[in-house]
């Protein structure tokens, strides 16, 4: 059944959500933001090791797809998740990842090195 004129824009927004999540570094940025109420660009740069221009591009994609919000205060720009549901989505994705890797011992062992997500029990992987 084809999408209706009313449904199509909704599915485009949903596809945009997945576009925002479609890069490993953007997922890492979201994980960092899920671990703190907000982070400065400098903190995100330090944690990701990205050049300022690359970090800016990734943050722009995340903003465009409504995954993060930003606020300028004096000379600093602060970023935060646009919704707590983004952190929930990251946790579900982590669980799915571990489930998918269950049959591959090497990758599962590598997954144990991923930084913990907020609310994730230590040693539960």
UniProtKB/TrEMBL annotation:
Q: Which UniProt keywords apply?
A: DNA-binding, Transcription, Transcription regulation
* Naturally occurring in which organism (per UniProt): Microbacterium fluvii
Q: Where is the HTH arsR-type domain?
A: 6-101
- Check the record and name the Gene3D superfamilies matching this protein: Winged helix-like DNA-binding domain superfamily/Winged helix DNA-binding domain (1.10.10.10)
Sorted alphabetically, which InterPro entries does this protein's record hold?
Answer: ArsR-like_HTH, HTH_ArsR_DNA-bd_dom, Metal_resp_trans_reg, WH-like_DNA-bd_sf, WH_DNA-bd_sf
**Which PROSITE patterns does the entry mention?**
HTH_ARSR_2
Lineage, highest ranks first = Bacteria, Bacillati, Actinomycetota, Actinomycetes, Micrococcales
NCBIfam families associated with the record: HTH_metalloreg
Pfam families according to UniProt: HTH_5 (PF01022)
Q: What is this protein called?
A: ArsR/SmtB family transcription factor
Organism domain of life: Bacteria
